[in-house]
Design brief:
about 240 residues; mainly alpha; two-stranded antiparallel ribbon; about 75% helix
Length: about 240
């Protein structure tokens, strides 16, 4: 966790942000629409609507594809493990996230209930901003308390699962073979998450070895916070405009 310094009188003094950090924040704003790239494609939607029965491989592929291209999910996962160094700790937090999103994804589709896609994606965007602020130590500084990171990871996992459920319902999946297809999709999501996690860990391990990691870590979390709020704003705007 990055600690923000406090100036005399109790006012927060933000660390000096380098030019690269400002550039990263600007890129986050411009990149906002790209975050939506994990929506269901017309080709995938048409294919799923044409098939019935148990089709494990296609749904396994779609689950993996959704997670790998779901930049909001990956950003949250990055925020969660940003300052976790031990594999045991990483395993606990990733498992909490997986339990959360698997539960609500399966339940949401099976029982046909969910949250408006604009609103749930706005909440997912907020989860990214929340985790970045948590990494910056903002809650301890501003409110004098440190929320449970494990509880937050599980709760946001549940909410990310509703986001996955809203995307799956767009496929208009046939009732025939629904349960095994959903399980295959969930397995694909977990495989995609593990692949994304492996890539993140390789990059993070090398990055942490550099002397400039502490300074750049602050900039990276500012970027994540900006991207999260940008996604949140886009989705709220979409909700009122659509």
């Amino acid at each position: 966790m990055i600690r923000l310094s406090v100036a005399p009188g109790g006012r927060a003094r933000m660390p000096r942000v380098s030019v690269p950090a400002v550039v990263l924040a600007a890129v986050a704003l411009l990149w906002g629409e790209a975050v939506l790239a994990h929506a269901v494609t017309l080709g995938d939607k048409g294919y799923i609507r044409e098939i019935t029965g148990v089709n494990l491989i296609p749904f396994l592929y779609l689950g993996g594809k959704h997670m790998v291209t779901g930049y909001d999910h990956i950003l949250f996962l990055l925020g969660v493990i940003f300052f976790l160094y031990g594999m045991k700790q990483i395993g606990i937090y990733v498992s909490l996230f997986a339990i959360g999103h698997s539960t609500t994804m399966l339940a949401g589709v099976w029982f046909d209930f969910g949250i408006n896609s604009y609103l749930i994606d706005a909440i997912i965007g907020f989860s990214v901003a929340y985790k970045a602020l948590d990494n910056l130590g903002a809650f301890q500084l501003w409110f004098g308390v440190q929320p449970s990171t494990k509880a937050a990871t599980l709760i946001f996992g549940f909410l990310h699962g509703f986001g996955l459920a809203s995307k799956i319902t767009e496929y208009d999946i046939a009732a025939d073979g629904l349960l095994p297809n959903l399980l295959a999709f969930n397995v694909g999501v977990e495989v995609g998450q593990l692949l994304a996690l492996a890539a993140i860990l390789v990059i993070m391990t090398r990055w942490r070895e550099t002397p400039s990691f502490a300074r750049q870590a602050y900039a990276a979390n500012v970027l994540m916070m900006t991207a999260g709020f940008a996604l949140m704003g886009l989705q709220i705007t979409g909700y009122f405009v659509a």
